[in-house]
């Protein structure tokens, strides 16, 4: 199957979001949007998008505004939070639905790590406008990490959140913590009633498998695929198993 690659741009609050579309020939194509994780960019998700395009989807990967190292989108990392990324994702959804060759009534969201958390919140907010939801090692630990004062490479006092928070190669802003520190992620994400696939590895050192297990129990219509020895960001055999699980789900 011949796959066309097209760069795209859209906007959220005057911030430019840049991404890439992979599409097969044809019209009325189902949409799938793949969201990258914290400190990452679409280089980590483009190959998933290409794969879903070979399955007949119009697949989009993109960089969140201020969302990671090497981002091609606008925005500062100090202005980014889970909820600014939700708004970014909504802008990409609206853009994808506006394309002349897509089916605006068939939108699937897929997210990795923080992008999974963002996709889950977005699906919960948009409800039946999202056909299916795919979560790879979703970072549902983010609110707990904020309350503990330890988020990836960042350490801070959660009772006195600083304006700027060094986090390895990135600097976060106060909003990143403030937006989630009092949040119950399960109360929000499980408002989505459509089909959910969660894929998580047993050797994930960043997001404990227990978060995915709890989510699967609370979602009304979900399946959890556990990958033995799978790490955070699947590689090799674990990635092949994850892709097979998605193929079956789709």
How would you characterize the overall build of this protein?
The chain is of the alpha/beta class. It has eight helices and twelve strands. The chain has helices spanning 46-54, 82-98, 114-126, 142-148, 174-178, 185-189, 209-218, 236-249, and strands at residues 3-12, 15-24, 29-35, 58-62, 102-112, 132-136, 150-151, 154-155, 164-167, 170-173, 196-201, 222-227. Strands 1-2-4-3-5-6-11-12 form an eight-stranded mixed beta sheet, sandwiched between helices. Strands 7-8 form a two-stranded antiparallel ribbon. Helix 3 links the parallel strand 5 and strand 6 (132-136). It is globular. The chain starts with a strand and ends with a helix. The relative contact order is 0.13.
Blueprint of the fold:
Layout: E1 3-12, E2 15-24, E3 29-35, H1 46-54, E4 58-62, H2 82-98, E5 102-112, H3 114-126, E6 132-136, H4 142-148, E7 150-151, E8 154-155, E9 164-167, E10 170-173, H5 174-178, H6 185-189, E11 196-201, H7 209-218, E12 222-227, H8 236-249
Parallel strand pairs: 3-4, 3-5, 5-6, 6-11, 11-12
Antiparallel strand pairs: 1-2, 2-4, 7-8, 9-10
Helix pairs in contact: 2-3
Major pleated sheet: 8 strands, mixed
Number of helices: 8
Distance N to C terminus: 18 Å
Tell me the series of helices and strands, N- to C-terminal: EEEHEHEHEHEEEEHHEHEH
Proportion of strand residues: 25-35%
Low-pLDDT regions: none
Assembly state here?
single chain
What would the principal axes of the Cα set say about the shape? globular
The averaged pLDDT comes out at 97
- Radius of gyration, whole Å: 17 Å
Helix proportion range: 25-40%
């Amino acid at each position: 199957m011949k796959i066309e690659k097209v760069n795209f741009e859209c906007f959220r609050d005057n911030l430019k979001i840049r991404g890439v579309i992979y599409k097969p020939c044809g019209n009325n194509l189902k949409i799938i949007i793949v969201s990258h994780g914290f400190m990452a960019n679409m280089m980590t998700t483009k190959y998933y998008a290409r794969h879903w395009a070979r399955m007949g989807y119009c697949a989009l990967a993109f960089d969140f505004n201020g969302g990671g190292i090497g981002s091609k989108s606008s925005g500062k990392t100090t202005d980014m939070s889970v909820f600014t990324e939700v708004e970014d994702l909504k802008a990409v959804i609206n853009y994808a639905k506006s394309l002349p060759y897509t089916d605006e009534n068939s939108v699937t969201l897929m997210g990795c790590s923080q992008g999974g958390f963002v996709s889950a919140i977005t699906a919960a907010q948009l409800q039946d406008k999202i056909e299916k939801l795919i979560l790879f090692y979703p970072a549902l630990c983010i609110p707990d990490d904020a309350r503990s004062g330890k988020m990836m490479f960042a350490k801070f006092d959660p009772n006195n959140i600083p304006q700027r928070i060094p986090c390895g190669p990135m600097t976060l802003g106060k909003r990143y913590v403030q937006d989630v520190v009092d949040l119950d992620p399960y109360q929000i994400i499980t408002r989505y009633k459509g089909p959910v696939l969660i894929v998580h590895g047993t050797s994930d050192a960043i997001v404990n498998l227990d978060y995915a297990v709890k989510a699967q129990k609370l979602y009304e219509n979900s399946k959890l695929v556990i990958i033995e020895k799978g790490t955070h960001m699947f590689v090799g055999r674990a990635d092949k198993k994850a892709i097979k699980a998605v193929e079956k789900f789709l």
